[in-house]
Amino acid sequence: MKTRHGFVSNSSSSSFLVLLKDIFFIFNDEESDKLLWTDEQIKAMLDYGFFYTYARSAVEIEFSENPKAKKKDRYCNLGYSIMCNQEDVINFLTNNNISFEAVCHYGHESVFYESGKDYYVEIDNVGLRQNSIEQAYEKADKDNTQIIRKIPLKKE
Fold this sequence. Notes:
The chain is an alpha+beta fold.
């Protein structure tokens, strides 16, 4: 789990994962070097602050002490962690038409975007939001919230 040092505000952490290769072809020698993104898109992500990682899900980045890969190889993906302003990262990725998955607000929400769609999907991770058994039962008695939401893209 990530630890925060120094001044701690009420900001929340979010982590993003962009798969570089189709997971089903990673072990197929003919397809193993075929990337899902252009060199320009990969450079843009690295310039933005993404790093190479062996993580296969955004959760692995969020709850890992050191999610960065020591070197880039055929099994790497791109990851990104931020303490707040996850909307900026979402807008960057969607404006560049890059599929991703993310966990936001300390894992309370999962966010998914598929390249070419005009919206992304946000899903509440309800179990992670509960602080106690009493709170879970209290919310269950009166909860009528939407757990899954379609969020239209903000085009720049």
